[in-house]
Design brief:
Elements lengths: L7 E2 L7 E4 L26 E3 L8 E4 L2 E6 L8 E2 L4 E2 L26 E6 L5 E2 L3 E6 L5 H15 L8 E5 L15 H11 L9 E4 L7 H4 L16 E4 L8 H20 L4 E4 L4 E6 L10 H14 L3 E4 L2 H4 L3 H6 L4 H20 L10 H5 L5 H9 L7 E5 L13 E5 L5 H11 L3 E6 L12 E5 L2 H6 L6 E2 L1 H4 L5 H16 L6 H5 L15
Parallel strand pairs: 10-11, 10-12, 12-13, 15-16, 15-19, 16-18, 17-18, 19-20, 20-21
Antiparallel strand pairs: 1-2, 2-3, 3-6, 4-5, 5-7, 8-9, 8-14
Helix pairs in contact: 1-4, 2-11, 5-14
Length: about 525
């Protein structure tokens, strides 16, 4: 078996660093195409200096200054985070506002999937009974009940895909009316209305908690179901009618049966691809994220927007250092100002907690070649493609709260994988795409999650966890466009239920994590 030729990848002709693409990296003395000789051993995905860089000199990747050299760096040297001084954060003043006016994307017509139409106009990709909780205290009881529902009731209802408990750590022991408390409350409320739940709202409450059911799901907030607004269906565990644990379980199962019967009557229908609401996210990122998987997701994002679908990208902490790229792509000054407001909120949040933005990146990101948040931000933004940004959501809001029907949307969330996923669920996504370079078993029970590997080595080792291998781009076996189209077609198949993702097959999912900036009591 022949040894692969040395391979390095640069992102722009003006860059003075490139990343090493070979599995396992390359040893010192390796001669790269073009004649550059490696001075050091350079791990895979890490940067090599393409020219001599003086002390204080700018280090450029993506044609962006990602740092300044803390010492002279010779051509062929390994350029890692300990050699870089991170640039200061971009000012939120004087940013370009709606200056980029790309030509209109050609409409992409004729693509459909088989989904579940909802009375409020949304479409589900799955048909799931979700049981909302008002407080963490009931989580154990609900988990027991869901286990029995799946074992004893679900087999009777073949058109229902699953039963999930919307468990969380909120509801009591919190300053329920504090500034910021509206965020976890509207998040949980809006998750309850996710398109994949078919408008069926069922709640399990303890009874004494601060977050009472009527506060969580007030009259008038319900989506319309069969041209009517349903009554709030709540099982109170403290109800005097409950004598013993099993009577609580019996009550939950009895109410679940009513909802299962209605959900089971639903059928998939052919709907246009414009009914997709896709959340895109990355986690366990490496330097390949911005080279392979995220650019392919960005190409796919453009395909979805051309098809009339909605795509949400997020992670305030990971796009803050590229805010100028985002405000320039805003469809209007109002959209740009809304993005700036979300970044300013984040800056104030960090300042209040006395946390520097250098806290992002993680140790795993650095091991994967990402030196700092500036470099990470450049690779993260690429997921958004090239379309104009047409709307902005604050944490916990749903698309309908802002009157957003379709297009590319910035949904403000922290970069934490599970908080981001939770908030995108609340916004109304019905399909999720998650890229990773280091690897993570991330999954959500509420929507299908398509996992995309940035490297072929990860795709081979985690062959039964990764749905798409974008590493083939770096290997020269596929183009960004090839993988983008592959993802687009896979989305239609997954949304239709014709294919299950690996996370679905293994039933891998993590608990929802509510973003709660309000104090506890």
């Amino acid at each position: 078996m022949s040894t692969p030729a040395p391979l390095s990848i640069s992102m722009h002709p003006a860059d003075n660093v490139a990343i090493i693409a070979n599995d396992g990296g390359l040893p010192a003395g390796t001669v790269l195409p073009g004649g550059l000789v490696l001075v050091d051993k350079v791990p895979q995905a890490h940067k090599v200096a393409l020219e001599d860089i003086p002390e204080g000199g700018a280090i450029r990747r993506y044609n962006v200054v990602i740092g300044y050299a803390l010492q002279p760096i010779a051509a062929g040297s390994w350029v890692h985070e300990r050699l870089l001084k991170m640039p200061g954060a971009l000012s939120l003043e004087g940013l370009p506002i709606a200056t980029v006016k790309p030509p209109a994307l050609e409409p992409l017509t004729g693509y459909t999937f088989e989904g579940y139409r909802n009375a409020d106009g949304t479409v589900g990709t799955r048909n799931i009974l979700a049981i909302t909780t008002t407080v963490q205290c009931v989580a154990g009881v609900l988990d027991f009940a869901v286990g029995r529902i799946k074992a004893e009731l679900l087999p009777r209802y073949p058109n229902v895909d699953d039963v999930v408990g919307l468990e969380h750590s909120y509801g009591c022991g919190v300053a329920i009316d504090a500034v910021g408390a509206e965020i976890p409350q509207r998040t949980l409320r809006n998750i309850s209305y996710n398109p994949n739940f078919g408008g069926e709202v069922m709640v399990v409450s303890l009874g004494c908690e601060k977050l009472q059911p009527e506060r969580l799901l007030p009259p008038g907030s319900f989506p319309i179901v069969d041209e009517r607004e349903p009554a709030l269906d709540v099982v109170f565990l403290q109800d005097e009618a409950h004598v013993g644990f099993m009577s609580m379980i019996d009550s939950i199962m009895a109410r679940a049966k009513v909802h299962l019967e209605r959900l089971n009557a639903r059928r998939r229908e052919t709907v246009p691809a414009s009914a997709l609401v896709v959340g895109v996210q990355c986690g366990g990122s490496d330097a390949f994220s911005g080279v392979t998987a995220n650019p392919a997701v960005g190409f796919c994002t453009d395909l979805l927007v051309r098809a009339g679908a909605t795509v949400m990208f997020s992670e305030v902490t990971e796009v803050r250092d590229g805010i100028d790229q985002l405000t320039s792509r805003a469809s209007s000054s109002e959209v740009a100002e809304a993005m700036i407001a979300e970044m300013a909120w984040y800056d104030a949040y960090l300042d209040k907690g006395k946390v520097d933005r250098s806290a992002n990146t993680t140790p795993g990101n650095k091991k994967g070649g990402l030196s700092n948040i500036v470099e990470k931000a450049m690779g993260s933004i690429i997921k958004s493609g090239t379309a104009p940004i047409t709307g902005v959501l604050s944490p916990g809001q749903r698309l309908s709260d802002r009157g957003i029907e379709r297009g590319l949307v910035y949904a403000a969330t922290p970069a934490s994988d599970f908080i981001c996923g939770t908030l995108q669920l609340a916004a109304g996504m019905n399909l999720h795409v998650f890229t990773t370079g280091r690897g993570t078993p991330y999954g959500l029970a509420q929507v299908p999650v398509i996992k995309v590997a940035t490297r072929s080595d990860l795709a081979r080792r985690w062959h039964d966890l990764m749905d798409v291998n974008a590493g083939r781009i770096a290997d020269g076996e596929a183009t960004i466009e090839d993988i983008g189209w592959e993802m687009f077609r896979l989305m239609l198949d997954v949304a239709s239920g014709r294919k299950k993702t690996w996370a679905e097959q293994w039933k891998l999912h993590n608990a929802l994590v509510l973003f709660n900036p309000a104090p506890v009591t």
